[in-house]
Amino acid sequence: MGETRPSRPVLGIDIGGTGVKGAPVDLTTGELVADRLKIKTPKPATPDAVADVVEEIAGRFADSVGDSPIGIAIPAVCQRGVARSAANIDPAWVDTDVDALFTERLGRPVHVVNDADAAGVAEGRYGVARDVQGLVILTTLGTGIGSAFLLDGKLMPNSELGHLEIDGHDAEHRAAQSAKERENLSYSQWAKRLQRYYSHVESLFWPDLFVVGGGISKSSDKFLPLLDLRTPIVPAKLRNSAGIVGAAWLAKEFGD
Which of 5, 15, 72, 140 is the most exposed place for a label (fewest CB within 10 A)? Predict the structure, then answer.
């Protein structure tokens, strides 16, 4: 019998408020098979302007991914390929059929997903949430707070826990990493806000595990030990690659 040929890597692209980054992903291991390409998010970040950048990234990796589907993570609620919100990108995204836009631009199947949901899927497949039963809630602490629900490993999309109202405030305005930087909070000061946030989420959903992602997760030893929760809370494993990896995995899953 002949040897089974390895499947081609799948391109994942993560659209953020400051940068659009992409790389081909080996879905067997969840590892990037080439260095990430990052291009500044255009201003204004309209759908067509961002599509130009996505097209450039896709062109750069065309030889390695062939005609494989492409996964794209966006900072928006995404229902069946249509954006229903816009966080740190242009308001013109709202009600845009992003699947159709990128499919037309790239000439191949595309799957679009919320960026935090993509990160959650990556941690569930390849990271610290792998094989965890029950409810896992991933939060990304950055400009805002993104969230993803995994129930027995299955994604429940578009949870948007950053917009819970806590003590009269939109939660992410007080507890996101951007709030720490904007108000020059120490880690201990910020941890008090995180404690209030995670305690509230914990009392609503009773999760089995919290996973903390975003760039700040690399400094998790400075604030996670300061939290007192019933639920175990751990830093994400894939960090800044999670959106790329999760988007690629979902593209392959929905493309098959």
Answer: 5
Convert the pLDDT of each residue in 132-168 to its tens digit: 999 999 999 988 899 999 999 999 999 999 999 999 9
Query: Are residues 76 and 97 in contact, defined by beta-carbon separation less than 8 angstroms?
Result: no
* CATH number of the structural domain 132-236: 3.30.420.40
* Pairwise CA distance, residues 202 & 95, whole Å: 32
Give CATH 3.30.420.40 domain extents, the chain: 10-117+241-255, 132-236
Quick one: CA torsion of 205, 142, 116, 30, rounded to 10 degrees?
Answer: -120
Give the angle 237-243-245 at the CA atoms, nearest 5°.
75
Q: Could you tell me the fold of the domain covering 10-117+241-255?
A: Nucleotidyltransferase; domain 5 (3.30.420)
Sign, Cα dihedral of 177, 183, 187, 190? negative
Predicted pLDDT of residue 254: 81
CB 116 within 8 A of CB 189: no
